[in-house]
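Newbie here. two chains, one complex. Structure please?
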Amino acid sequence: MGTETKPLKLMIEAFLFASDRPITANEIHSWLPDAALPDIRQSLEELLNDYGNMGRSFSLRQVAQGYQFRTKAEYAPYVLQMLKASPARLSRAALETLAIIAYKQPILRQEIERLRGVDVGGILRTLLEKNLIRIMGRKNLPGKPLIYGTTRRFLEVFDLKNINSLPKLKEIKGLVSNEEQTEPTSEEGFRTGEPGEEKTGTEQGQAGAETCPATED
Amino acid sequence: MTDNYEVKLEIFEGPLDLLIHLIHKNEVDIFDIPIATITDQYLEYLDMMKALNIDVAGDFLVMASTLVHIKSKMLLPAKEDEEKDPRIEITRPLLEYMRFKEIAEDLSDREILDRDVFSRRLSPEFLAQVKDEDPQLDVNLFQLMDAFKRIMEQRLPGAQFKLKLAQWSIKEKTEVIIALLKKKGSIFFHDVFDADRNVSELIVTFLALLELVHAGLVKVFQPDAKSEIRLIPSFDENGETTNGYRDKTAQIDD
């Protein structure tokens, strides 16, 4: 084992290969402080291409603002056989609730229930247990209701680069109203945002300002 | 009532699901719902649920009364000043619900981790070993309060908690802490108070730290019970939390 410097791209490849979670350019920079961030990004980009063109059963994917090796979907049955596991499943109700939270976050339970027309207490618990959603705080309303949002794990599980890469919310056709129809109420404003666009503090402030620290139940 | 069969009608999880089913079954336009027909079928279904001893959730009954109300409104001649179609009361929530159903399907079509795609798994033995080497106790609020009390006693023995006009805002102090973390990476708990000169400043710094922990920008841990509390940043250079959300500091106000 020589101590001479190895090619940056291959050092990064080693990290990616050995990691069990997506790793970000910034993390790599913290492990290799001598490497410049733009060079790290460049290497990651090259690795993405390399593995994309290799025709292997896995590729490098951009998820949750990081990079991770993942097997391709067509090999799922074989991997499941090896893992002796059944595929992770979410009920349709859980998926619908998750969809609402993803697009409308920060959102209160009562708003989710208004949209779904049913009680979602049990589903919220399941989603919290699976670490797909999180409690973002409490709203300054009577009863201090909890505010929900999605987690980084949500991005990982659903193969999303970041929250902005959720597919665009479709317009409701034929119902033109002055009320909030398609605009998300999200503090991130992610529907309007181009990737990398700077969000202003006030944009977030309107939704976030009313929150106060969440306490454990 | 002794024989209680749990009949799970998954497709009619709620009143909106049932309505969508009826609309599809009758092949009608959602913008022109034949309200009398749909209402009758809806009520029939509720009767069927009752006959099957299925607990009819309150949500179903609320929708039933809404439908009946709309139906009666439709029978009355429309008033001159009333331009709104009474059916909008169910059309709108239905459309919104259908939109999220569609998104849920889109989500389900994605390459889902541990269903369609798989990532590397480190062996549990290795992970356990890593844990042994670098145990990180989560620090709770009370431990933080204790640690803060000790700092107060060290820095300002005998000081009283007297709140004066704040010279420092929490927002300013959060920025100071973030700058410190950006510069040094991981720091000790007491480090954040190094620049503080008086009681109110110490308190503001402490509150700022709590805000940062709450916003998920700072992680607090102790390698073991006896060692000093450490703070580590959990944001990247753009001020994004590692959770993937945009700069939380912007929403911390004093």
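Moderator note: The CA atoms of residues 196 and 202 of chain B lie 6 Å apart. The radius of gyration of chain B is 30 Å. Thread marked as resolved.
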